[in-house]
Amino acid sequence: MNEFLQQLLNGLALGAIYALIALGYTMVYGVLRFINFAHSDVFMVGAFAAYYISNGLARWLPPESIPGAVIIMLLAMAVCAVLGVVVEKLAYRPLRDRSKLNVLITAIGVSLFLEYSGQLLFGADPKTFRLLPSRNVELGGLVLNSNQLIVFGLTLVLLLALRHIVMKTRIGTAMRAVSFNHQAAALMGINIDSVISFTFALGSALAAAAGILYAMNYPAIEPLMGVMPGLKAFVAAVLGGIGNIPGAAMGGVLLGMVESFVRGSRYSTYADAIAFAILILILLFRPAGLLGKSVVEKV
Amino acid sequence: MSGSVALEVRGLAVRYGVITALQEVSFRIPQGDIVTLIGCNGAGKTTTLRAVSGLLKPSAGSIQFEGSSIAGLPPHELVRRGMAHVPEGRMVFANLSVLENLHMGAYLQRDKAKIREMLEFVYTTFPRLREREKQLAGTLSGGEQQMLAIGRALMSRPRFLMLDEPSLGIAPLLVKTIFEKIVEINRTQGITVLLVEQNANLALEVSRHGYVIETGRVILEGASPVLRQDPQVRAAYLGG
Ligand SMILES: Nc1ncnc2c1ncn2[C@@H]1O[C@H](COP(=O)(O)OP(=O)(O)O)[C@@H](O)[C@H]1O
Ligand SMILES: [Mg+2]
Question: Into which CATH architecture does domain A2-132+142-285 fall?
Answer without folding.
Answer: Orthogonal Bundle (1.10)
